[in-house]
Specification:
Length: 215
Amino acid sequence: MIIVALAKGALLKDSVASFAKAGLDFSGVLDPKNRLLMVPSVCGRAKALLVRNGDVPVYVAYGQAHLGVVGFDVLQEKQMEVSPLLDLGFGGCRMSVAVKSSSGYKSAVDLPPHCRVASKFTSCARRFFSDLDLPVELVHLTGSVELGPLTGIAEAIVDLVATGRTLEENGLVEIDQLFYSTARLIANPLSLRLDDGTLQDIIETIKSQLHTSRK
């Protein structure tokens, strides 16, 4: 039985479509009436685990799922022992540094040393500012980090940005970018080594479909 970890939310519909091209129909997870967290594929030879985006690499790293689809941002933040396989191309967004538009800062290096930076992605932020040799105090928030500069708890934020509308509506502006994030297909390393060809067939089919769609 093939186990696939799928993230609830924005990546789910396109993730299901990717596996459908490889013959694994997980369309049942898209049923608004579905309350199952382990959903069998239509063919019955696979199951999907419906988990939070941040938990996908955890289930894959510990071998409870053979494959998974997760945002590159989560892979960068979690740094789990998984095998990254394919850039699936959907779910695109930027990991950016943002400040109040009235701050006058033009880039991250303009921020004052030891200022506070709010983020859900503190590991990513820590590496970024370490590479800049700019010491900052990181404030971990799990909700709307845009409130950081607005309330004064932080001078800047590090967060995912898709359209930039939320930043604009809250008087914030991007001043730097850490990386661009898209959905990635990942695998458990041991599962790949022990694979009898079943996983590789799925991976190669998804890969070939990606190449076809990008021509």
